[in-house]
Design brief:
Structural class of chain A: alpha+beta
Largest sheet of chain A: 4 strands, mixed
Number of domains of chain A: 1
CATH class of chain A: Alpha Beta
Radius of gyration of chain B: 22 Å
Number of helices of chain A: 2
Number of domains of chain B: 2
Strand order of the largest sheet of chain A: 1-2-4-3
CATH architecture of the largest domain in chain B: 2-Layer Sandwich
CATH class of the largest domain in chain B: Alpha Beta
Oligomer: heterodimer
Helix content of chain B: 25-40%
Strand content of chain B: 15-25%
Chain lengths: 81, 288
């Protein structure tokens, strides 16, 4: 798997649903189309639901990285304005 | 003149404790009422009731305090506005449904469309006791399928598409049943754990699942004086034709075997659920 040119990162481990998704969405809005965001999230409810919500917004999920410490990094390419 | 209360009840007029007053139940399917129908209901409630309606526990509308003397006029006014009266008593009741796949991101089936078909096929059919259909679009079960005599729950069967998968592992985390494992780039689904909720498919960034929508049916639920969850007796049903065949067989079984004032689950207990299971299995397989 090729490395990604990550433009920005956002940590959503400090908030709970539904703000997890909102915070990620706001971070994506700051990017230009095609740019890549890394979303740092906790295990459990966030990783169960945030990737699906991101997909439903039309963005492209490239990878889910397991940090093996109870957190994950979701790598997302922004699609559309 | 003697009032035929049972005929009025069959026509949705529920006798109130206040003499010569009726709470009028309207016909609804899946809790859907058009704006035009609402205007008619509003006018009737204002003019013939007491200016309010009651939302029933099964997604219906009742207009309380309709006077005995006004019943024919009320029926005429409702019919003019495209509103039909409902039913009560020993017959097939309001078919309930969630909005399902028509609006809801979680919906695996078009629950409203199916509810309309069930309503057209069975609504008001005379039986030995009340009989309730409920349709829910997914495992979230907003419509509480298992409370019903015949409950339908939408689901999906999934098959992994290896060539479309990027091995991201999102589905492994999205699955609340722990049914999915990812090892060396290969996905395995444990069929025993999978409950057909479809969260894997909905979360998948590359649509790497072949998906077949279908139905899970529960039989003999009730949630009144007795509390009983409907039982699932059949495998996943993959097409509507089979589902309707199973529904036909269920209703016919109850019509033939039920005793007066005996609820469906009581019939199943008395006759034996295994006897019934043979009948619906035949319907499921399309055998005569």
């Amino acid at each position: 798997m090729a490395d990604f040119q990550i433009k920005d990162t956002v940590d959503i481990t400090d908030v709970v649903c539904p703000v997890t998704f909102v915070k990620a969405k706001v971070a994506l809005e700051e990017l230009e189309e095609g740019e890549i965001l890394s979303i740092h999230m906790a295990d459990g409810e966030p990783v169960q639901n945030v990737p699906r919500s991101i997909k439903e917004e039309g963005h492209q999920i490239l990878k889910l990285l397991d940090n093996s410490d109870g957190t994950y990094d979701l790598i997302v390419r922004k699609v559309g304005e | 003149m003697a009032v035929d209360y049972s005929a009025l009840k069959a026509g949705g007029f529920m006798r109130q404790k206040q003499k010569d007053n009726f709470s009028l139940r309207l016909r609804t399917v899946g809790g859907t009422v058009t704006a035009e129908q609402l205007r008619t209901v509003q006018a009737v409630a204002d003019e013939f009731g007491e200016g309010y309606i009651h939302l029933t526990s099964r997604q219906g509308i009742e207009i309380p305090f309709i006077k005995l003397a006004d019943i024919e006029e009320v029926k005429r006014r409702l019919a003019e506005g495209g509103v039909e009266t409902g039913v009560c008593g020993p017959r097939v009741r309001t078919v309930t449904a969630c909005q399902g796949g028509r609006c809801c991101p979680s919906g695996c089936i078009d629950a409203l469309d199916l509810a309309e078909k069930l309503d057209a096929r069975y609504f008001g059919r005379e039986l030995n006791h009340k009989f309730k259909f409920g349709v829910t679009g997914c495992q979230n079960n907003c419509l509480k399928a298992e409370e019903n005599d015949f409950g339908v729950k939408g689901g999906v069967q999934v098959a992994w598409k290896e060539d479309a998968c990027i091995g991201c592992g999102v589905c492994v985390k999205a699955c609340r049943r722990g049914a999915i494992t990812l090892e060396e780039g290969k996905i395995t689904v444990d069929e025993e754990k999978c409950n057909n909720c479809g969260r894997c498919n909905r979360s998948c960034p590359t649509d790497a699942w072949d998906v077949t929508s279908g139905y899970m049916v529960s039989f003999g639920g009730t949630f009144g004086n007795n509390l009983k969850f409907g039982e699932g007796l059949l495998p996943f049903i993959r097409d509507e034709e089979t589902l309707l065949r199973v529904a036909d067989a269920t209703i016919d079984f109850f019509a033939e075997n039920g005793l007066p004032s005996e609820r469906f689950f009581k019939t199943l207990e008395r006759v034996g659920i295994d006897t019934f299971k043979v009948v619906v299995e035949k319907a499921y397989k399309g055998e005569e």
